[in-house]
Structures are given as structure tokens and as C-alpha cells.
Design brief:
heterodimer, A: alpha/beta, 5-stranded parallel sheet, B: Elongation Factor Tu (Ef-tu), domain 3, Rossmann fold, 2 domains, 6-stranded mixed sheet, 9 helices, about 30% helix, about 30% strand
């Protein structure tokens, strides 16, 4: 008998006034009881609209059916079949615009909490340490994966399952990409990412850190070393700034820098050497998940005030609803329809104030969102010693400047064949932010999976 | 892990290490740098590559002990390992085509200026090397610099080596004596590079400086290393580290370099307290 409750089964969370002072995970996850109750809200539609909206096509009604039966291990195994980073996706996917947006239950009430159920299944497997992975028979072919972020790790996992010898080359000292340096501990505990990486290693994937392909190794070296194909998942690169006055003042960070200091290098934790000046009044520019992450980190570092400054309205914000909701609960202020004009500093070149201007929404632009226009004479200043720019990234030129044969488009993103994700060089594939520009973890994973299938086709026929 | 093959003190506070790092060495070129992390708790710091051998898979770094991380690094000995060591990063120096060069090094910056002089000298250029130090006890690499330049002038701020004055004085004297340089390469502390660039600007001599700002990843991802060049924001790790000295905003760079000064000083002080005996060895 289906559970006809209109609303999702609530997920226990740390209370806002407690969690705003710590870095431990906000959402605590379903109990077994919660999971079965929520699973029973799924009608098991034969048309599976949710599956079609999932970038990696997880067999959603099927894994939920196993949860209903209480066979959590079977549920986990179904999820893992299509999603090699399920515990991550259950936490960070924008489900409301993907699987959950297509859920029939969403027509009258809330959709099934597919993301929460995915997380439950993946965590159950992880805690029970069920070894679903059988190490596949090696097929004697080698694939190099450049970049250990979501796209690269997914591609590596898929290929390893098919029997390829896979080596991941990572530029930083830790694999994981944005999952390690970008998304904070309270939203995605690092032990979960480390666990996912460990399970890839168990599949036989080799990870070599501190190697910058394009610098330490050229594509030719990879070919000389016997790699039969290459996947490039180098991610988005150079952080954008606004090109306003005062951006070089002390206390102005790109979100990448701020988050890397906090998440990867643990600047918040005693005993770690990476410095970060104590933020007091913080302004975060941007309306995406990265902006929410930076703002909520700043709060946890002890900032007195934290404001999100976004030039459009809340409806236009690209962040997940849950992140906006959590940020508000924790006391972050939202200055919407507001745009920075300049940053003002003191005699020591430290940022002290941010001058903003009010905006109003005009006609829709090419993105379909209404274009914000300045309201003349509406300038005002707020106190801000820490200003974090979370307004996206431009592609990183490190690889493309070293490998001239790699075709790029006018935004300097890698050009790939739509169906196979092969670049302008035969046997070299690419996916994720390096191709699309900054997007989501799950889209990068979808690309990694698609490229793995194409690489498999290519090498089977080679 | 990256093993330290040799360690030598060049003066009381400057250390040279040859490190086994085949990936960093394979394609290394003059002007590039590495980013290293001493241990799990460490920060990532950039150090310019002082020498390299692709064949033996080694990178030579020379660093001055200026804070906690460099002090910690200096405590490691031959046979010890550095946790992370990534490179080569940044664009290589463009040295081709110069016939008459002045290469200027300031303090530990000589360790990075010297390979530039060596490369130019090998390519057949006439190289005047001018090296500046605070005092004669701190002079490093004198023989190597002499062997790889047409003329070597060593200046000391206090005159303790008999040559009192800044590098700019020696450079100006040389220019005034009729020397025609097609390039001046200046590597050292920001105030020195600024002074050299100001001087050469008045004579209209092309000047290249090597910027060494704060960095984290060194691959263009974080934007921490941004410098103002000709009024435009550039990232030293991917657009540099070499820039046209006449276009760099040195005052801005000096302010940014001091971003964490107080925190850095505290960290160094407390480190010294706990490691006093070792540092005095």
C-alpha cells in the first residue's frame, strides 16, 4: 500500500543555531524506518520519468522497490550499477531540477525524496562495507584519465569495471577535485569522498597526484607510455572577477581560493598551516551553490555578518533550493537585486566596505532569465572586510596552451563530438566542466560515463 | 613522496636541496616553479626551479628560511622525503634572441637569476651578472655566477665586501659607461625589482621580472597570485611568473604579499619556540 502523504518524509538535521558553529554534516540522513516510509511514497511508474531526467540514468523505481522490501543491500547495488559516486550524488545533486522534477508525486504535493533515498542506500552499503565490486578481468588495455574530479573518477570507475588498466593523473595533492577543495565538509563529508576513491582503487584504478598534464607530462608522453586512450576531465579553471575597483585589496578572494583554503587545506582547523584572516563582515557575490558554500563556511569561521549579494531575484538563483533554505535558516542575509560597484580599502590596503547598487529586472536575456538593470542613484555601502567572488570560472589554459592540437571554442572550452565526446585528437576524449564550462557534479559524472562507453567502443574495435 | 638527495647550506639562512621528482623534472625549463607541501598539515608554497635534470629526474630548489614552512623544510635532511612536490608550473622564460643581457639577482633571488644567466651565456649572449646582498656573509653562488657570465659584480648594502651599494647603482654605472643592453632580467625582492624597473624605464631597456606572489594550487584555479600588469589582472601562475617589469604594479604586489603577514609571523614565532635547538644546529 503506497504511502499517500503529500510531503516528503523529513530528514533529521542539525539545528541551525548549533550547526552554524561547526563543520560537521548538516543533514543527518534517513533512518531505516524513514527510508522505508519514504520509499513507499514511490508509485513505481512504468514510464520511469525520473530515470530519463537523471544524467547517469540510475534505475530509480527499481532501487526504491528494494528499499520498500527492506533489502537495502540490493538497493545499493542497483544504484551503484549506474552511479559510481552515489553517496556524493545523494548529497549534492540538484534533484529538484532532475529526477525529482519529473516525479508524478510532485504534481499534488512533493516529489518522492529520491536524493535522500539514494544517499540512504549508498550510506548503508558504505557502513555495512558490503563488497559489491568484483575486480574485473584485466583486458590488457591502458587508459589515462587526466583530472581526479567527478568526471575523471566516474570515467575511471566505469572503465576499470570493464577491465581496463586506468591511471588517474591529478594536479593537486589529493584526488576528488571540487568534491575535496570546493564542497564543504558540512555538505559533503570528506570521508565519503575518500571512501569512494578507495573503492575505485580496489577496482584497480591507480591515482598519481602532483602531476599536471600539459606541464609534467604531455599527451605524447602518455601515448609513448602505452596508454591506448585518454580522458580529459580537467575541470573549469580560472576564477572570474568582476573587474571592479578594489579587487586586489587584502580580504578579497575568489570562491575557489577561499574554499580551497578552508576545505582542502583545513585553514579552520588548529594545527594546519594554511592561513586565513578572521572574517568579521563577509559579502559573497553570486547566487549559485558555490556562493552558498562560501557564505556558510564564513559563518562557521565565526563571521559576525554574512551577506549573499546577487544581482537578480531569488527565483533566478542557480543554487539548489535546499542550500538557499539552509543558508537562510543559519542567518545569512540575502541582498537580492543588488550588484557590487567597488570595494573600498583602508590605508593598509585591507578591504573595509563594499559599495553596491540596486538592480531591477528588465527583459529576458539570452539565458531566458530577466536581465538586471541598475537603478540609478540607488548606491549604498555595507561594511565588508572579506569579499568572496563566486561568479563562475573561465576555462583553464594550462592544458590547451601546451597541446595546440586540442581544438577549443571561442570560450576556450574543449570541442568534442556530441555523441562520443572525442576531442579533435583521435583517442583523446573530454568531458565535464572543461567542455561545458562550470556546471554540476552530476553532469560531469554523466559525461565521464558517456566517454567511458565511447572509449570502450573505440578500443574494442581498435 | 619526494626524496631529498642532497642538502647544502649556502649561507646561514639559505638552503639548496636536490629533490628526486621525475614528473617535475621531465619537461622543466628555466623560469618555471614547483609547488610543495612539507607534510599533511602544511601549506602549499611555490619555489622557483633553480636547476633541473630530466635525465636523473631531479629538481634543485634554493630557498631562504623566512617563515614556518621554509624553516620546517630546512629541518629535513638528505634521505628525508617531502610529501608533495608538483611541477613544472608557470610559463618558461623567453630567453632566445638576446645578445647583450644584464641579469640581476637580489639575495636568494640570485638562485633563480643565476640559471637565467647560465642559459643566456650558453646561448652565446654577453651576460653581465649583478648580484646584491645585505652583507658579505650572505653571498651565495659567487663562483657559479662568475663562471656563467661575462662579468660578475657583487654588491653589498653595507659595503662589507668592498662594494657598497644597491644593484641599481652598479647597473646604472654600467649603462653610463656605454654598455648597450637589449634586455635586463631582474629577480629578487619586490622593492629591488621595482627599483631596477624604474631605472631601466628611464633608459628604455626591456626588463623582465619574475613575480613570486602567494599561491595555493599554482595551476590557475584559485586566483590568489593575481598581479596587476598594465592595469589588467594577471595570474602569475599561468600568465607568468615572468612579466614586463615596466608594466607591473609593484606597490600592489607588495601589499598583496603582506596579506597574511601577522599570521605568518605568529606561526613562525611559535614554531621557533618549539624547535629552537634544531634551528640552532
Amino acid at each position: 500500500m503506497a504511502n499517500m502523504q503529500a510531503l516528503k518524509t523529513k530528514m533529521p538535521e542539525q539545528l541551525p543555531n548549533i550547526r552554524r558553529e561547526n563543520f560537521t554534516e548538516v543533514a543527518l540522513g534517513y533512518s531505516a524506518e524513514d527510508a522505508v516510509q519514504e520509499a513507499n511514497r514511490c508509485l513505481g511508474c512504468k514510464t520511469r520519468p525520473c530515470v530519463a531526467k537523471c544524467p547517469v540514468n540510475v534505475a530509480i523505481p527499481e532501487f526504491i522497490a528494494e528499499l520498500k522490501n527492506g533489502d537495502f543491500a540490493a538497493a545499493a547495488s542497483i544504484v551503484k550499477r549506474d552511479n559510481s559516486l552515489a553517496a556524493v550524488c545523494g548529497r549534492v545533486c540538484p534533484q529538484e531540477v532532475q529526477c525529482e522534477s519529473a516525479c508524478v508525486r510532485g504534481i499534488k504535493g512533493e516529489s518522492v525524496a529520491i536524493g535522500r533515498l539514494e544517499r540512504f542506500a549508498a550510506d548503508f552499503e558504505s557502513e555495512a562495507a558490503i563488497d559489491n565490486e568484483e575486480k574485473p578481468q584485466n583486458n590488457g588495455k591502458k587508459v589515462a584519465v587526466v583530472g581526479g574530479g567527478p568526471a575523471g573518477l566516474t570515467c575511471a570507475g566505469e572503465l576499470a569495471k570493464k577491465g581496463y588498466s586506468v591511471t588517474v593523473f591529478e594536479a593537486l595533492h589529493t584526488a576528488g577535485g571540487v568534491l575535496m577543495y570546493g564542497i564543504p565538509e558540512f555538505r559533503l563529508p570528506k570521508r565519503i569522498v575518500e571512501k569512494e576513491i578507495e573503492s575505485l582503487k580496489l577496482l584497480g584504478v591507480e591515482i598519481i597526484t602532483n602531476v599536471i598534464v600539459g606541464k609534467s607530462l604531455k599527451l605524447q608522453d602518455l601515448s609513448d607510455d602505452g596508454f591506448n586512450a585518454v580522458f580529459l576531465g580537467t575541470g573549469a579553471g580560472l576564477p572570474n572577477f568582476m573587474k571592479i575597483l578594489g579587487e586586489n585589496l587584502i580580504g578579497v578572494y575568489s570562491a575557489n581560493e577561499f574554499l580551497t583554503r578552508v576545505n582542502l587545506l583545513k585553514a579552520y582547523s588548529a594545527g594546519y598551516d594554511t592561513p586565513l584572516t578572521q572574517p568579521e563582515n563577509v559579502a559573497v557575490i553570486g547566487g549559485g551553490n558555490v556562493a552558498m558554500d562560501a557564505a556558510r563556511c564564513a559563518l562557521r569561521l565565526g563571521a559576525k555578518t554574512v551577506s549573499i549579494i546577487y544581482r537578480r531575484g531569488e527565483d533566478e538563483m542557480p543554487a539548489r533550493n535546499e542550500e538557499i533554505h539552509h543558508a537562510k535558516e543559519e542567518g545569512i542575509e540575502f541582498l537580492l537585486l543588488t550588484n557590487p560597484v567597488q570595494i573600498l580599502g583602508d590605508d593598509n590596503s585591507k578591504a573595509v566596505e563594499l559599495e553596491c547598487v540596486k538592480m531591477e529586472l528588465g527583459e529576458p536575456d539570452s539565458s531566458g532569465r530577466r536581465r538586471p538593470v541598475e537603478v540609478e542613484g540607488s548606491n549604498f555601502k555595507i561594511a565588508a572586510d572579506t569579499i568572496i567572488m563566486a561568479i563562475g570560472n573561465a576555462p583553464n589554459p594550462t592544458l590547451t596552451s601546451a597541446e595546440k592540437e586540442l581544438e577549443t571554442n571561442r570560450w576556450n572550452c574543449l570541442v568534442v563530438d556530441e555523441d562520443t565526446l572525442q576531442t579533435s585528437i583521435k583517442g583523446v576524449y573530454a568531458g565535464g566542466d572543461a567542455v561545458t564550462g562550470a556546471a554540476t557534479v552530476i553532469l560531469a559524472m554523466g559525461a565521464g560515463k558517456k566517454a567511458a562507453a565511447a572509449i570502450d567502443d573505440y578500443l574494442k574495435n581498435a | 613522496m619526494y626524496k631529498i638527495l642532497t642538502k647544502t647550506y649556502l649561507n646561514s639562512s639559505t638552503v639548496e636541496m636536490v629533490v628526486n621528482a621525475p614528473y617535475a623534472a621531465k619537461h622543466a625549463q628555466p623560469g618555471q616553479f614547483v609547488v610543495l607541501r612539507v607534510d599533511e598539515y602544511g601549506e602549499r608554497i611555490p619555489l622557483t626551479i633553480a636547476d633541473y635534470s630530466a635525465k636523473s629526474g631531479t629538481i634543485t630548489i634554493i630557498f631562504q628560511i623566512v617563515g614556518k614552512t621554509t624553516a620546517q623544510l630546512a629541518l629535513l635532511n638528505q634521505g628525508d622525503e617531502i610529501l608533495d612536490f608538483a611541477g613544472p608550473l608557470g610559463a618558461a622564460s623567453e630567453l632566445c634572441g638576446f645578445k647583450n643581457a644584464a641579469v640581476i639577482g637580489g639575495g636568494a633571488g640570485c638562485a633563480i637569476a643565476y640559471p637565467q644567466a647560465k642559459a643566456l651565456f650558453k646561448m652565446g649572449a654577453d651576460v653581465d651578472m649583478i648580484a646584491g646582498f645585505r652583507t658579505s656573509d650572505l653571498i651565495i653562488l659567487e663562483d657559479k655566477m662568475r663562471a656563467n657570465s661575462t662579468n660578475l659584480t657583487v654588491m653589498t648594502d653595507d659595503g662589507s665586501n668592498g662594494n657598497k651599494g644597491f644593484v641599481t647603482a652598479a647597473l646604472e654605472q654600467s649603462i653610463n659607461s656605454g654598455k648597450q643592453y637589449d634586455v635586463v632580467i631582474a629577480i629578487g625582492p619586490l622593492p629591488m625589482m621595482k627599483a631596477v624597473a624604474q631605472l631601466t624605464k628611464t633608459y628604455g631597456i626591456k626588463t623582465i621580472v619574475s613575480m613570486n606572489p602567494l599561491m595555493i594550487d599554482g595551476t590557475g584555479m584559485c586566483g590568489c597570485c593575481r598581479v596587476l600588469v598594465d592595469g589588467k589582472m594577471k595570474f602569475a601562475c599561468v600568465d607568468g611568473p615572468d612579466f614586463d617589469g615596466h608594466l607591473v604594479d609593484f606597490d600592489d604586489a607588495m601589499k598583496r604579499l603582506a596579506s597574511f603577514k601577522a599570521l605568518e609571523a605568529d606561526a613562525y614565532e611559535s614554531f621557533k619556540k618549539t624547535h629552537e635547538c634544531n634551528l640552532l644546529k
